[in-house]
Amino acid sequence: MIDETWKIPQATTRRLPLYYRFLQNFANANKTRISSSELSEAMKIDAATIRRDFSHFGALGRKGYGYDVQYLLDFFRKTLDQDEVTDVALIGVGSLGTAFLKYNFHKNHNTRIVIAFDPRTPKEGMINSGIPVYHSDQMTEKIKEQGIELAILTVPADVAQYVTNDLVDVGIKGILNFSPVRLSAPDSVRVHTIDLSVELQTLVYFMKNDVKQSQL
Which residues make up each annotated binding site? Predict the structure, then answer.
């Protein structure tokens, strides 16, 4: 688990799961040690950034030797709590929510969706991709019953804040928000918002400006 007293920069923290994923790829390819340059080439991240990120955790490598792949894997597995699976509730089973249900997070990650809720679900519930789905009226009861602290939100914008309020009241500590609104929540609740339309607009901007720069 990441010790907050280390004051790791947020940008570095966001890259840790990526480091872990690419280190798994190196290990699967029977690579025993790597350099920051090799990791940089694979991840398309500047080598200096990688070295700076790693420096926040002490001496992870040796000058002239590089990094031991298995050591880094073990270190980041422990740092990211990869050995402890976190149960997740999915709120909203529309097109995006259904895609999440079909994707087996727990095969490659330390999270798994164990329950889902949607207002269109029959009162008796149903099974979707092996995961129980209940009517939204049962959300607070079921989440509290199972002690779930992490939720994925894929609901319409006009109800997102109301759902968030209910999730906060029932003890949710983290929300991954795919609704196109900024949610209000207490400081004790971590909210990460992923607005797909904004991400696409940003991508288009960079694409067009890359073209302009190449024409100069």
Answer: 92-97
